[in-house]
Design goal:
Blueprint: E1 22-24, E2 35-40, E3 45-50, E4 56-60, H1 67-84
Antiparallel strand pairs: 1-2, 2-3, 3-4
Bound molecules: zinc ion.
Amino acid sequence: MGKRKKSSRKPAPSRQKDPLDTTFTCLFCHHDKAVTVRIDKKEGVAQLVCKVCDQRYQSKTHHLTEPIDIYSQWIDAADAAQREGGSSRRPAASSSRPAPAVSYGSDEE
Ligand SMILES: [Zn+2]
């Protein structure tokens, strides 16, 4: 029997239905390409989710928002949450934190 099994090599299905669907490395479980950012421009929201450890993050978007922006925001938010959730919990009495420099709405570009 000299029949060789061919390795069936299919061409990668190019399903580019959503070019804004982008993957990143997870901050928490460190799995590569586990984090998916999906931007819904119609709704003006972005959703980030890790398919491995199920971390989630949601943010508003504007017309220039890119997946990497949401990913960066998530890193900042996770970082801030880690600092606040330290061993010593103090009441957030002081208003010393700077206002977020985010401008939604009509920015002239
Ligand atoms: Zn994860």
